[in-house]
Each structure stands twice: as structure tokens, then as C-alpha cells.
TrEMBL record:
Record's catalysed reaction(s): O-phospho-L-homoserine + H2O = L-threonine + phosphate
Transmembrane residue ranges: none
Record protein name field: Threonine synthase
PANTHER family (UniProt xref): L-THREONINE DEHYDRATASE CATABOLIC TDCB, THREONINE DEHYDRATASE, MITOCHONDRIAL-RELATED
Keywords, sorted A to Z: Amino-acid biosynthesis, Lyase, Pyridoxal phosphate, Threonine biosynthesis
PROSITE patterns according to UniProt: DEHYDRATASE_SER_THR
Coiled coil: none
Record carries keyword Lyase: yes
Family statement drawn from the similarity comment of this UniProt entry: Belongs to the threonine synthase family.
Length: 354
């Protein structure tokens, strides 16, 4: 028996994977749903955090990638391509290398965190730094896949959303039903669409008695779904969601409207404050973009727009180790002073008294 079975093994009957088709897995999925004690007290709700940084490459992208790459393998693909703000490319590179395919990744030059760039490189990706933003990269990736024999594994490939919907299944399987409210960051808008699909399918099949309201949060400098028009120069510290023209905008609006939910924005300061709160109070280190949902919850609570007593699940999408540069500019760096290797000196620096 193997412990790392992966989400295709767990949810195969719900996925468009052939019964005897190849499965490219790293044991993704089945991530922790952690009770957030401090947040619950602060918000007057019962809050759970779905920790997607616990996936093999450190983000929720692995859910979609195991399905997209497995199906591409069944179709005989030799290469995959994606545009990315960093996490999709890290995941695509890992799964494609495992499948013996060449991963081609198009990245906005100079706008990817170092950790994510390293992931694409070590997995043997053909890393192309494009002089443009994510939206330019996605346009190029689509055209490359149209004109050459490479499989597109961005979330415009519906197999990605199919894999990502399993996170909603897991929430229901863990809680026994859907929560009142599900909250998450929104960038290219694939993930909120995938969760909504998952919740709907489980409710239709009688696995849940209801669906949650979906609340999505974009960064204020990259909030096309809030503004109602594309943003030509998206700008935010949360580089993962620095996207001005979301590919799945129509599906995200559907999730928002059909669930009775909303899509709003949060400032960079609100995002970084939420990141700090998660790290210092809940023990959960996430990258900045991943904290947008928590930032949104705090914003709505402060505005008196979060009814107390609800059961709330908030997805944190990627691990904090993905982007340590941003974290280290915000937190106090290591103290400059080096302490002598003796007990009293160390105790004194720590403010300890015998
Ligand atoms: N959080 C993180 C950490 C992400 O990397 C992304 C998207 C999102 C949230 C938003 O999810 O796009 O489905 O709305 N990252 C993509 C990438 C764009 O290339 O890695 P979404």
C-alpha cells in the first residue's frame, strides 16, 4: 500500500479520467482543514482554513495539474505549455517532468518570486521570460498551443478546473456538509469557478444539503472583476494574483451570482496584515496572494457585513516559503548583533530571567 494516493485515486468517478488511463500523481489533495481559533474569535464565526500550501509543489495548482497532465499523457502529448505568475509553472514543471514531457513556461519577466522561478528551473522547465505581464503570457501560451504540438495546461483547459473542484469535495467530506460561506483569493478566476462546480455537483448528488455563498477577493491594484473592466497595468505585492484580464471571468461571475456571493477587493496593506495574522496567531505561513481571502473576511467584518455565527471556510492557496523576499521586507530581519555562545548571553537577549 502507498500513502500518497492522490486525488484521482480518491475522486476518480467525479473526474474526466479514463478508468484505465495513466495517472500522473505526486500525492496531491487531502489537504488539512484547520480550525482557526484566533480568527473564529475575532470574527464571531466558526472559521476553518483549507491549507493548500500542503500540496506537493506548495499550492492548489497541483489539483488541476494531476488531472490535466494525466489526460495530456493519455493523448500522447510530448510537451505542455502554460503562462504563469509562478505557481502554475511550478506545478506544471513538476508534473510534466514526472510524465516525461517537456514543460514550457511563459513568465512575466522580473515579476515572479524567486522560489517559484527556482521550482520551474529545477524540474527542467523551458523557462521563457516574456517582456510583458501575465495576460500577455497567457495570450502567447494559447497561440503556441494552437500552432504547435504542445498541450495548454492553464485553467482555460477545463481539466484543470475538474481537478481543482475536488477541494470543495474535501471540505464537504470533512465537515459533513457545505459551509455557509466559502472565501478565497481571485486572480485568473479559475479556482473560485472550480470550487463552485465542486459544491454544486456534490449538492446535486446528495452529498451536501446546500451550497455555500462564494466570496472572492482580488488585490485592489488588480481587480478587474470588481471594476467591471480589464486592468491594463495590474499592480500588487501579491504577485500571484497580478492579473488584469481573468480568463475565467464569466465563470467567476456565475459563481458569485448563482451562490448569492460577492467579489470585492483588498489593499496590499490588508493582504500583508492578514498574512501576518495567519502566521503569528494561527501558525499558518502563506504567500501574500493566499491571504487575500482572510483579508477580505477581516474587511467585511470591520464593515459590519459579516453575519456572526456562520460556518466559514477560507482557502489559503499557496505556501509562505514560495515568496520569502516579500516576507523578509515586512518582518524585522535578523538582529544584527551576534551573541556569544554562552547561556547567560542567550538568555539575556531573549529577555529571560532565572
Ligand atoms: N493564490 C495563488 C497563490 C495563486 O498562485 C493564484 C493564481 C491564485 C491565488 C488565484 O487563483 O487564478 O484560479 O483565480 N495563480 C496563477 C499562476 C495565475 O499562474 O500560478 P485563480
Amino acid at each position: 500500500a502507498t500513502t500518497a494516493r492522490g486525488l484521482i485515486a480518491r475522486y476518480r468517478e467525479w473526474l474526466p479520467v479514463a478508468p484505465d488511463g495513466p495517472v500522473i500523481t505526486l500525492g496531491e489533495g487531502s489537504t488539512p482543514l484547520v480550525e482557526a481559533v484566533a480568527l473564529s474569535e475575532l470574527l464571531g464565526c466558526s472559521v476553518f482554513v483549507k491549507v493548500e500550501g500542503a500540496n506537493p509543489t506548495g499550492s492548489f495548482k497541483d489539483r488541476g495539474m494531476t488531472v490535466a497532465v494525466s489526460i495530456s499523457a493519455a493523448e500522447g502529448a510530448q510537451a505542455v505549455v502554460c503562462a504563469s505568475t509562478g505557481n502554475t509553472s511550478a506545478s506544471a514543471a513538476a508534473y510534466a517532468s514526472r510524465a516525461g514531457m517537456l514543460p514550457i513556461v511563459l513568465l512575466p519577466a522580473g515579476r515572479i518570486s524567486t522560489g517559484k522561478l527556482a521550482q520551474a528551473i529545477v524540474h527542467g522547465g523551458k523557462v521563457v521570460q516574456v517582456d510583458g505581464n501575465f495576460d500577455d503570457c497567457l495570450d502567447l501560451a494559447r497561440r503556441l498551443a494552437d500552432s504547435y504540438p504542445v498541450a495548454l495546461v492553464n485553467s482555460v483547459n477545463d481539466n484543470r478546473l475538474e481537478g481543482q473542484k475536488t477541494a470543495a469535495f474535501e471540505v464537504v467530506d470533512d465537515l459533513g456538509d457545505a459551509p455557509d460561506l466559502h472565501v478565497m483569493p481571485v486572480g485568473n478566476a479559475g479556482n473560485i469557478s472550480a470550487y463552485w462546480r465542486g459544491y454544486r455537483q456534490y449538492a446535486e448528488a446528495g452529498r451536501a444539503t446546500r451550497t455555500p455563498r462564494m466570496w472572492g477577493f482580488q488585490a485592489a491594484g488588480a481587480a478587474p472583476l470588481v471594476l467591471g473592466h480589464r486592468v491594463l497595468q495590474p499592480d500588487t505585492v501579491a504577485s500571484a494574483i497580478r492579473i488584469g484580464n481573468p480568463a475565467s471571468a464569466h465563470l467567476a461571475r456565475e459563481a458569485r451570482d448563482d451562490s448569492g456571493g460577492l467579489i470585492d477587493s483588498v489593499t496590499d496593506d490588508q493582504i500583508l496584515d492578514a498574512q501576518a495574522l495567519l502566521a503569528s496567531r494561527e501558525g499558518i505561513f502563506v504567500e501574500p496572494a493566499s491571504a487575500a481571502g482572510v483579508a477580505g473576511l477581516l474587511k467585511k467584518h470591520a464593515a459590519g457585513e459579516l453575519d456572526p455565527g456562520q460556518q466559514v471556510v477560507v482557502t489559503v492557496t499557496g505556501h509562505g516559503l514560495k515568496d520569502i523576499d516579500t516576507a523578509l521586507t515586512r518582518w524585522t530581519p535578523l538582529q544584527a548583533e551576534v551573541v556569544a555562545a554562552e547561556l547567560e548571553s542567550v538568555a539575556a537577549v531573549c529577555g529571560l530571567r532565572g
